[in-house]
Amino acid sequence: MISEAPAPPADKLAILVWAADPGRPELCATPFYFAAAAAAMDVEVEMYFTARSVELLRRGVAETLQAAAGSGKSVADFRREAVGFGAKLFVCPTALASHGVGEDELIPGLAGHAGAAAFIGRTLDPAWRTLSF
Amino acid sequence: MALLRGCDFPDALLYHPDSHLWFVPAGDSLYRVGVTQLGIALSGEILLFTPKPVGASCDAGRSFGLLEAGKTVFPVKTPFAARLIEANPALDPSARRMNREPFGAWLVVLQPSGEIPPGVLLPWPEARPEIEKIMDRYAFRDLADFSAPLFHEDNRDF
């Protein structure tokens, strides 16, 4: 009989952001809120932006979006909080090209480029859990 | 009971001004921990408290739980290495009671992992100057007319 020791609990979280984009501002704060909550609880957090969600990393875009109209808090504010708690933001270079977002248009402080393979690597790694928005 | 700019600071409690937490000995080297009225006022209305699992060990400066206040999250960090012994069941599923009863609605009971360094937990007279500085930084003149900031630029815990 083969017995395996239970895997240690994961303490890292990778978040895929692909469906929250400037066309649906009501969806755009939640990924950052979840990232902030996890990072504030000492979880290592990475956010992977792809598809049109890369627009949320374009300078000046998230500043104009509010998930809840009249809240006074922009999507950029939520993003700032997530980063402030330690979440790392990665952007997909293929999506940048597809949506016409230039490298020089991106906000400063991104952790780097990462595409599908990087996120899939996280999903297959038992030390990580994943969420997608 | 001391009163400062509309906030109560009971004399029987110890304070860690930077984290806006109060502490009271709870026997067997344990401390019951809660959030000061000032901490709650700076956060806005608190809705949820999610503790780490009972038994979790936290190094000094690490969070033992998370507060959610409207659209913002705040880690609640222990100022000394400790083990989480108990979380207040009265704050599950809603922590709104904290807004009404800051000294009754405690968060957790912590057991220090070792000697608490001197100067970490302060009686009110020693805590007061630091708390006044924090109030000044937020232009906190009185609890009755203070509105919580939407954002916290100084990377405070909450």
> Structural class from helices and strands of chain B?
alpha+beta
End-to-end gap of chain B: 24 Å
Helix content of chain A: 25-40%
Characterize the largest beta sheet of chain B: strand count, sense, and whether it forms a barrel.
7 strands, antiparallel
Strand sequence of the main sheet of chain B, in spatial order?
Answer: 7-10-11-5-4-3-12
Pfam families (chain A): DsrE
InterPro entries (chain A): DsrEFH-like, Sulphur_relay_DsrE/F-like
Q: Would you kindly provide a written description of the structure presented here, covering whatever features stand out?
A:
The complex is a heterodimer of chains A (133) and B (158). Chain A has 133 residues and is an alpha/beta fold. Chain A has a single domain (12-132), classed as Hypothetical Protein Ychn, Chain: A (3-Layer(aba) Sandwich). Helix content of chain A is 27%, strand content 17%. Chain A has four helices and five strands. Chain A has a five-stranded parallel beta sheet with strand order 4-3-2-1-5, sandwiched between helices. In chain A, helix 3 links the parallel strand 3 (88-91) and strand 4 (112-113). In chain A, helix 1 runs parallel beside helix 2 (75-84). Chain A is globular and about 55 Å long. The mean pLDDT of chain A is 94. Chain B has a domain at 10-114: RNA polymerase II/Efflux pump adaptor protein, barrel-sandwich hybrid domain (OB fold (Dihydrolipoamide Acetyltransferase, E2P), Beta Barrel). Chain B contains three helices and twelve strands. In chain B, strands 7-10-11-5-4-3-12 form a seven-stranded antiparallel beta sheet. In chain B, strands 6-8-9 form a three-stranded antiparallel beta sheet, with no helix packed on it. In chain B, 39% of the residues are buried. The longest helix of chain B has 14 residues, at 124-137. Chain B is of the alpha+beta class and 158 residues long. The interface between A and B is medium-sized, with 17 and 15 residues.
